Amino acid sequence: MNEFVVALGWFGLFAPVALGAIGSAWGCALAGSAAIGAMLDSDGGYGRFIGVSLMPSSQVIYGIVIMFSLQQTTVDAANGAALFGIGTLAGLTMLFTGIRQGEVLASAIHASKAKPEIFGISLAPAAVLEGFSVFALVFALVLAGSIPA
Amino acid sequence: MSNSHQYIALICSLPHLGLLFSRADVPISAFRLKQRLAVLAPDHARLLRDMIAVTDWAGVARCNEDSEVLARANKVVADLADYPDLQHLAGTRMETRTIIAALRRRRDGQETPGDIRGWGFGRWCTQISNNWSDPGFGLSHFMPWVPEAHQLMAAGDHIAMERLALTEVFRQLDHYGHTHQFDFEAVGIYVLRWVIVERWSRYNVKDARRRLGTLVDAALNPSNAAPPFPLARPEPFLGQPAIFEETAS
Question: What is the interface pTM, i.e. ipTM, of the complex?
Answer without folding.
Answer: 0.83
